[in-house]
């Protein structure tokens, strides 16, 4: 339990989340500042304004992902801290199980969320899923066993 509280929570999770929030906040501030600066430079340059807007949206999405991860992972670690520092403290076991489920859901969703932002990984996942479902990009491939005696598809 000492390892879980001191090394994992305080050393890894809390420290990395603080650094992550600081970096994402810095990115958002720079993006917003640049966007405001361009707002007064030239209103006719729509392409440049669109480019800055996209950067702002990307930075906002990163912050939302960071906050969601923190919300999912922190409760179980707080329960670990409570269990370690206050051995006589009681808490509802069902709530504890929900925090475990929440942290596992976060772990399941992270690869999907972060991979969906990369176009090459997205394309590879699409090919993998289509291959697993026997679907070609042109349409559905019907896979029939040799014992099938029905009507063949055209």
From TrEMBL:
SUPFAM superfamilies to which the protein is assigned, alphabetical: Family A G protein-coupled receptor-like
InterPro entries listed in its UniProt record: GPCR_Rhodpsn (IPR000276), GPCR_Rhodpsn_7TM (IPR017452)
Residue stretches spanning the membrane: 6-27, 62-85, 91-115
GO molecular function, one term: G protein-coupled receptor activity
Subcellular location: Cell membrane
Keyword tags: Cell membrane, G-protein coupled receptor, Glycoprotein, Membrane, Receptor, Transducer, Transmembrane, Transmembrane helix
Name of the molecule in the record: Adenosine receptor A3
Native source organism of the sequence: Biomphalaria pfeifferi (Bloodfluke planorb)
């Amino acid at each position: 339990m000492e390892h879980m509280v001191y090394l994992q929570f305080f050393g890894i999770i809390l420290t990395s989340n603080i650094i992550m929030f600081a970096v994402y906040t810095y990115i958002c501030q720079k993006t917003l500042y640049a966007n405001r600066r361009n707002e007064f430079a030239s209103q006719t340059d729509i392409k440049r304004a669109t480019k800055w807007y996209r950067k702002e949206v990307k930075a906002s999405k990163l912050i939302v992902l960071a906050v969601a991860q923190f919300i999912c992972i922190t409760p179980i670690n707080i329960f670990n801290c409570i269990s370690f520092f206050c051995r006589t403290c009681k808490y509802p076991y069902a709530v504890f199980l929900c925090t475990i489920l929440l942290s596992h859901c976060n772990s399941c969703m992270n690869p999907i969320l972060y991979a969906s932002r990369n176009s090459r990984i997205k394309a590879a996942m699409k090919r993998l899923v289509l291959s697993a479902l026997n679907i070609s990009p042109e349409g559905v491939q019907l896979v029939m066993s040799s014992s099938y005696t029905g009507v063949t598809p055209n």
